[in-house]
Amino acid sequence: MQAELRAHRAVLLTGAVMALAVGLVLVRAAGYLPPSSWFAAAFHPNAENVRELIFHYSSLPRLVTALLCGMGLGLAGALFQHILRNPLASPTTLGVEAGAQLALTIATVWAPFLLGGGREMVALAGGLASTGVIFAVAWARGFSSLSLVLTGLITGLFCGSLTVAIRLLNQEYITSLFIWGAGSLSQQDWSVVLYLLPRVAAAMAVTALIARPLNLLTLDDTSAGSLGVSLPLLRGGGLLLAVFLTSTVTSAVGVIGFIGLAAPQVARLSGARRLRDRLILSPLIGGFLLVIVDQCVQAASGEFAELLPTGAVTALFGAPLLLWLLPRLRLAGAGWLAERATAPARRARQTPLFAILSGLLILAVIVAAVVGRGPDGFAVADADTFALLAPWRLPRVAVALMAGAMLAVAGVLIQRLTQNPMASPEILGIGTGVALGLIVAMILSPAPSRSLQFATGSAGALAVLALLLWSGVRSRFSPDFLLLTGIALSAFMDALVVSFLAVGDPRASQLLAWIAGSTYRADDGSAGMTLAVAMPLLAAAPLLSRWLDILPLGEDAARGLGVDLRLARFSLMLLAALLTAAAVLVTGPLSFVGLVGPHLARMLGLNRALPQLAAAALIGAVLMVSADWVGRLVIYPLQLPAGVVAALIGVPYLIWHLMRRER
Amino acid sequence: MVADTATYHDAKQDRRGRDAPADPVFEVRDASFSIEGRTLLAPTNLTLARGRVYGIIGHNGSGKSTLLKLLARQMAPTTGHIAFGGLPLDRQGARAFARQVAYLPQTVPAATGLTVRELVGFGRYPWHGPLGRMGPEDRAQVKEALRLSQVEPLADRLVDTLSGGERQRAWIAMLVAQNSAFILLDEPTSALDLAHQIDVLRLLRDLSRERRLGVVAILHDINMAARFCDELIALHSGRIRAQGAPDDIMHGEVLERIYGIPMGVFPNPETGAPIGYAR
C-alpha cells in the first residue's frame, strides 16, 4: 500500500516536471509567434516570415534535441546505476562523456575522414575506451563505489586536459570545438533530430526487451545466476547500451553534465522503487528537465542565446542538486568511501632513497637548463650559449620546480586530512577555484598584474575551501562527504569557466592557456614571486607533520591524544589551499602532480608524514621540471604546456598501478 | 562554578578518606546526553577514582558508549557537567586533558603503515605538542610503555601485520605512554578470542595496580568483567541500574534487572567466584 503511494508520488512528480517544461515552452513560443500559426510554421513555414523560419529551423528542432538528449542520458544513467549497483554512477561520473569527447576531438583534428563514417562510432570508441580503463581499475579493486567514481573522475579530468591540449595546438578549431564540447543545443535544421531519433528510440526498444532479465540483477550474483541468467552477457550488454546512448548524445551535442546522474536519482528518491518504473520515469524526467534548463538558458542569455552552452549550465543546476542528494543517498553503511591506503609492508631505507631522489632532481634541473632543441636537432648548450639562454630557461625551471613541490606537498596534506589516498588538490576543486579567481582578475583589469592574479586566485581557492569546510562542519568532517562535495564544487566551477570561454570573450584563450598549465611566460619576476611565496609555505608544512601523523589514526583517537581537531584541520586546509593556489597559478589546475607525488612517495615505503612530505616534494619537482622540459622539446618549435605533459606522464602510471594492485 | 566542583571534590575526598588530595577523580554530576530528542543517557551521577578498574556493562544501546565518550570529552553533555580533578572538562585545554585521561576508541584503523614504536610514540603528543621534540623523558616513557604492555619484541614490526590481540596491546601501549591518570577503553576485547581477552584484561588490571591507573572499560562478557574489575557499573536504557563490587552485582535478581532476561549464578568450581548464566 505504502509502496504504491510512493510510486504514485513519483508519477506525480514526473508529471509536474513535464507540465513545467510544457508550460515554459508554450509561454516562450507564444512570445514570438502567435499560437494560431504554430501548426503551419511547424510543417510548412512561410519562407517570407523570419519568425516562422526561426521557429521551424531553430526553436523546434532545439526543443526536440533537448528532449531526446535528456531522455537518452536519463536512460543511460538509470542503466549505469542499476547494473553497477552504484547510486553515483552516471555518464558524467564514469568519464564516458569525457572519453567520447576526447575521441571526437582527436578525430576532428587528425582524422576528419573518420567522422564521415559515423560520428557516433568514433564517440563510442572513445566512450568504451575510457569505460574500459575505469572498469579495469575497479575490477582490480573489487568494484567498490569509491574506486569506480574516483577513477571515473580522474579519467574524466585526464581526458579533459588532453582535449584542452589538443585544442590549444589547433587554435583554428577552438571556438567551434568549445561550444560543441560544452553541450550547445542550438540548431539550424532538423539533421541532429533525425540523427538522434532513431538511435534513442532503438536503445529504448532494446531496454524494454532486456528489462525483465535486468531486474534479476537486483538480487545478488549467485541468486541471479541460479535463476538461469547469463550475468556477464546481461551486464556487458546493458553497459554497452548505456555507453552507446551516452556516446550518441555526446557526438551530437557535446557533454551535458549531470542529467544522467540527476534524472534516475530524482526518480528513485521520489519513490520509483521498481526497476521498470525507474526505466520509464528516468528518461522522462531527464528529457523534460533538460528542456526546462534549456528554456531557462535561452530566456536568460538573450544575445548569447546561440552561444551559451546548455551543457555547462546543467552542471550549474546539477552540482547543487548533487550536494542536496548526498546526505539522502542510502549508502551501504558508514564510511563506504573511506578506502584505506594499504601501505607496503616493507619500510624504506631512507638515506639512499633521498640521495637518489635528490640526484634525480639535480639531473633534471641540469638537463632542463642545458639541453634544448634547435632547428638542427638536440643541442647541448656550451658556456656562451648558456649565458644567452639562461634568462629564458632558468626562471622556467625554477617555477616548474617550485610548483611541482608545492602541489605534491598540498597533495600529502589533503590525502592525510581526508584519510583517502585518491584525494588531491585537483579533485577537491581548489584548482577550479583558482580559475574562477583568475576570471575575476581578468574582469577587474584588462592586463592583470601577477600580484592581482595571485590575490584573486588565492581568494578563489579559499572560497572553495570555505565551502568545503562549511560542508565539513555540517557532515562532522566526514572525509567521504568532503570528497564528494569537492567533486560537486569542481563540476560547478568548471561549468562557470566553460561558460566564460564559450561566450567568446577575447580573454578566453589566455585562460585556456593557463588551464593547460603553461610555464612559457615565466620570467625573473614571476620566478622570484613564486620562490618568495613557495619558500615560507613549504617550510610551514613540516611544522604540521605531527598532526599529519596523528590524523590518519582516526578522529576519536586524535581527539583522545589531545589534538585540537578544528585547529588542526583548519590549519592544514589553509596551507593546502595556499600551496595549491600558488602552484596552480603557474602550472594550471590539471597536472595531477598533487595526486601522483604523494602516491609515489608512499609506494616507496615512506609512511611517516615528514619523510613522505620531503619525498613527495622531490618527486613533484622532478616530475614538473621534466614535464616542462619534455613539453619544450617534443613538438618543437611549438610547446606543450608542462601541466598537460605532467598529467600525460603521471596519470597513466597511476592508473596502471591501480589496475595491477591486488584486491 | 569552580567553587561548586571544588566542594564536590573535597566532599568526595573526605568520604573516601584514603586518597591523597593530589589524586584527581572523575565527578559526573547530573550529566545527560540527548540527540534529536532521543535521550541516550539520563542524568547520571558517578565518581571514579584512580587505582581501580571499572567495568561498564549493559545491553546494546544502554548508553555505555555515550557515558564513556562523555568522560573522554569526545562529546559534551547536554545537561549537567563532568569535572576532572575539580575542573569542569570544558575548561581544560585539549592537551592538558589528554595528559590526564587517555582514550581508546572502539574502532581503530587497521592499516596505518606505522611500526609499533612509532604508534606508541604518538602517545607523547600531549606532552611535547605539535612542535616540540621527543626528549629523553619521552623516549624513556615509550620504552617503559612498550615493556609494561609486553610489546617490546614487536616494537619494530608494522602494526598492520600484527594479530588482533597484539594490535590491541600496541594501542594500549600508546595509551600507557600518555602517562595519564586514567585510561578509558571502548570495548577493548570485543574482537578478540578468549585467550587474548584474558591477556588484555590482565594487562589492564596490572597497569592499574602498578601505576595506580584508573581504568574504565566497556565490557561485553559479564563474567570477564566480574573477574577483572574492582567495580561494575551496569546501565539499562540510559540509566545506571546497579553499581558495586562484582560480588554485589553477581546475583540472579540483579543480573535480571540489568539484562532483562532470567539469569542465574553458580560458583566457579575451582575458585568459588560467582558465574552468571542466562536461564
Q: Descriptors for this entry?
A:
heterodimer; A: 663 residues; ABC transporter involved in vitamin B12 uptake, BtuC; B: 279 residues; alpha/beta; Rossmann fold; 2 domains; four-stranded antiparallel sheet; 11 helices; 12 strands; 38% helix; disordered N terminus
In short:
The complex is a heterodimer of chains A (663) and B (279). With 663 residues, chain A is mostly helical.
Describe the overall structure:
The complex is a heterodimer of chains A (663) and B (279). By secondary structure, chain A is mostly helical. Chain A has 2 domains: 2-325, ABC transporter involved in vitamin B12 uptake, BtuC; 351-588, Orthogonal Bundle (ABC transporter involved in vitamin B12 uptake, BtuC). Chain A contains 27 helices and 2 strands. Chain A has helices at 2-32, 38-43, 50-84, 96-110, 112-116, 119-140, 145-169, 174-181, 191-215, 221-226, 231-253, 259-269, 275-301, 310-325, 350-370, 383-418, 430-444, 450-474, 479-502, 508-516, 524-543, 545-550, 555-560, 565-587, 593-603, 609-633, 642-660; strands at residues 371-374, 377-380. In chain A, strands 1-2 form a two-stranded antiparallel sheet. In chain A, strand 1 (371-374) and strand 2 (377-380) form a beta hairpin. In chain A, helix 7 packs antiparallel against helix 27. The longest helix of chain A is centred in the middle third of the chain and has 36 residues, at 383-418. With 279 residues, chain B is of the alpha/beta class. Chain B folds into 2 domains: 2-244, Rossmann fold (3-Layer(aba) Sandwich); 245-279, no CATH class. Chain B has helices spanning 2-16, 64-71, 94-100, 116-122, 125-128, 136-148, 164-177, 194-211, 222-228, 246-249, 252-259; strands spanning 26-35, 38-48, 53-58, 79-84, 87-88, 101-104, 182-185, 214-218, 231-236, 239-244, 263-267, 274-278. In chain B, the strands form 3 sheets. Chain B has a 6-stranded mixed β-sheet with strand order 6-7-8-3-9-10, with helices on both faces. In chain B, strands 2-1-4-5 form a 4-stranded antiparallel β-sheet. Chain B has a two-stranded antiparallel ribbon with strand order 11-12. In chain B, strand 9 and strand 10 form a beta hairpin. The longest helix of chain B has 18 residues, at 194-211. Chain B is globular. The relative contact order of chain B is 0.15. The A-B interface holds A 340-343, 345, 347, 419, 543-544, 546-547, 549-550, 552-554, 556-557, 559-564, 568, 602, 607-608 and B 72-74, 93-99, 102-105, 107-115, 118, 122-123, 125-126, 129-131, 158, 160-161, 178.
